[in-house]
Amino acid sequence: MDAEVGRGAAARLFGYSSISWIGAIVGIIIVPMSTRFFLPEDLGKINLFISTSTIFYCICLLGFDQGFMRFFFDFKEKEEGRWLYAKCVVTSILAFVLLSLVCMLASPWLSSFIAGEKDMLIVPLLLLVVASQIALRYSQTYWRAADRLIPFAVLSLSMIALMKFCYFFGGVVSFDFMSGAFSLAIFAVAFILLSLLFTKDELFGQKKKPSNHTYARLLKYSLPIAPAVLLSTANGYIPMYAVRAIADLGEVGVYSMAVTLTAVISVFSSGINSFWPPYVFKNYKTKQKSIQVFHQALVLVLSFLVISVMSLQDAALLFLGEGYLEAASYFPFLLIAPFAYAVGETAGVGIHIAKKSKYSLLTYLVGITSNIFLSFGLTKYFGVVGAAAAAAISAILMLVIKTHFGEREYQSVGSYRYMGSSLSVMFALALAKSVLGLSSFEFFFACVVGFALVVMSFGKKDLCQAWKLLIRGVRDVFFEK
């Protein structure tokens, strides 16, 4: 591969990842603005509204967005890819219609759960946001598979806007929940139209049914993924729902905004998902070492990032406002979950290579079951700290299971000690902060010692070798031959 083509591959890879970085930056900027204009109670309602819409949209996808990505590369003709795309979209539209009927029937309960009062307007607004998420998800997935950065970027940034800050424009009327919900619904309609504009040819243009593919194969792969994705998404919100069950909406607001701060870690997971699956599907047969190097490097970099944020958590929470400093006792636990999810994308990639969707389903089924019991059990005895700890423990458990099954199908990890040492140190630091109540200085010193232990677990020889392999691995990823 010549240098010019290599630079093009590097630019595309950086472009896809940078979209997630932009999302994290936007989230970090909007958070302190939100906490200063909205009351914690209203932020709690808004976050419950957004989280519920996200769960509903995952239900409607039925795993077909991932099925589309997996099978798209099996086709040589563009028209076959259009056929696959249209089939997936139509299936999700039917699921959305059915979900809408159920939600309207449950409107009194659903509105009370989200806003603490019965309001018949809340569910229709919610469904508009769900429809927009479905449209944006499919359209951005199509252009990612087609390797078209510009439309993918526009649609991805639209999704980020919808989920991160569109509610803020409700402040034109009033900085409260209902104004924010109306603002989200208005932008949702605009983004639905934008998605149709970008994919009208794919939906309504000429299509050719592939000879080597049947809808049954798509169903067989996608449907087992659907509950796995749903469980994965819901798993992240269960602790917040547990807080909602025992505390007022103001406490939910504090907890949910503390979770939002962990976006600085979550961005790596989103960035990895933007380019990692297509890269692995194309190269897993010939570049296993590069894949293992990427995993090990990711663990080291994320460990540094997580522990650094832990050490500076008081300053980070003060960024939200003085009223949010109460989250300091459980904030370190919240940072562990996005670490585990990001690492899991590389550690469990063998599941997707082997098309063993049932392993993903089992992983998230165990994860959400443990999360429900831990969240409501620990929250009952330890309050919000228990909810945060439950999120961390269930995330670690899912990482262990995903790694186990992923490595059975394809060895993408190389060595388990990197993950083991990092997770042990992080959990010990979080436990020390919540139980011992360390001061800012004491906790900062503990974090420095903790990261030193992580580095030592690599060993001098392995650390030097990892650095050399990292350089070579990055060259392989950016400049494929």
Shape: globular
- The percent range for strand residues is under 5%
Q: In terms of per-residue confidence, which ranges show pLDDT below 50 for 5 or more consecutive residues? A: 1-10
Main sheet attributes: strand count, strand direction, barrel closure: none
Mean pLDDT: 79
Radius of gyration, taken over Cα atoms and rounded to an integer in Å: 22 Å
Proportion in helices: over 70%
How far apart the termini lie comes to 5 Å
SSE string: HHHHHHHHHHHHHHHHHHHH
The beta-strand count equals 0
Total helical segments? 20
Pairing-aware structural class of the strands and helices? Answer: mainly alpha
Ordered list of secondary-structure elements with their pairings:
Blueprint: H1 3-37, H2 40-61, H3 64-72, H4 78-105, H5 107-115, H6 122-145, H7 149-164, H8 177-204, H9 215-246, H10 249-261, H11 263-283, H12 288-311, H13 313-318, H14 331-347, H15 349-353, H16 357-382, H17 384-409, H18 417-436, H19 440-458, H20 460-478
Helix pairs in contact: 1-7, 1-11, 2-4, 2-6, 2-9, 2-10, 3-4, 3-6, 3-9, 4-6, 4-8, 6-7, 6-8, 7-8, 9-10, 9-16, 9-17, 11-12, 11-14, 12-14, 12-18, 12-19, 12-20, 14-17, 14-18, 16-17, 18-19
